[in-house]
Amino acid sequence: MSSESENDKERLVQAAKTFFFHIKDLTFFTNTLTELFNNNMNTQILSMAVKDNSTIKDSFEHMLRIFKDMQSVVKEKYNEMQKESLCSKFASAMCSMVEKSTNVKELQESAKEVFKNVHTPVIVSVLHNGNILGNLESSLSLLMTLPIMNLQLSDFYREDNKEQSEATTSQKTKSPGPSRATVVDILKKLQDALKPKNANNPTESAADLLEQIVKDMGPILEILQKVTNSIETDISMSFKKVNDK
């Protein structure tokens, strides 16, 4: 067996392990965001419960449902808040200005200030700006066209020791890793799922594709992590400002 073939196998195994922990991290941050969302928006969106025998398709579909539900609530709340804020502030400002002056230019300037000062809840503002939830949906939808959707999470990596369920990849305690027999089984399943037709080197092709999938998942995970951290920080600062008053 050539060293090149062994190298391709190692690449595939490492890419599969990274994919496994990316799914774990996506689940962690999605659930953290869901909890924040439910607590602040008075919703009851169900969090994820990804198990090793869960298929990748089931996991991604659950994430998509969560993001779609959030997007629907955010859109409705944003429009509602904008309308309420505008109506209330505009009416108040206009009444005040009309009492003081009938100058049209002054009324126009007052209206501009009203529009500038319309505020929305932190979580709505963060998720609405930049269409974050829509972008996450689009990225996940693209990943769902890949040939690994019917594989189970355990087909990528199997933990011999249970790692901390509420920690991200960087915080997890290291486990000894799967046995050789397990690795052989993982390689076979990944090769069967990922190899293109008439490939000269199925292992190399599978490794190339899975490495690209892992690379494509990176921005999704990064966005989700940054959004979650941003919301946690903004909410914390908002509470601090209220308490300091």
Question: Which helices and strands, and how do they pair?
Answer:
Layout: H1 3-41, H2 56-100, H3 104-116, H4 122-128, H5 132-143, H6 180-194, H7 202-244
Walk me through the structure.
There is one protein chain. By secondary structure, the chain is mainly alpha-helical. The chain has one domain (12-233). The chain is built from 7 helices and no strands. Residues 160-181 are annotated as: Disordered. This is Chromosome 12 open reading frame 60. It comes from Microcebus murinus.
**Uncertain regions: pLDDT < 50 for 5+ in a row?**
114-119, 161-171
**Portion of residues within helices:** over 70%
Helix count, DSSP H or I runs of 4 or more residues: 7
Principal-axis shape equals elongated
Task: Report the mean per-residue pLDDT as an integer.
Answer: 78
End-to-end C-alpha gap: 72 Å
Whole-number tally of structural domains: 1
- List the helices and strands in order: HHHHHHH
Based on helices, strands and strand pairing, what is the structural class?
A: mainly alpha
Largest sheet: none
Number of E strands: 0
Oligomeric state: single chain
Round the Cα radius of gyration to an integer and report it.
Answer: 25 Å
Q: Which range does the strand content fall in? A: under 5%
Pfam family, one: DUF4533
Protein name: Chromosome 12 open reading frame 60
Organism: Microcebus murinus
Key attributes of the depicted protein:
mainly alpha, 7 helices, 245 residues, single chain, DUF4533
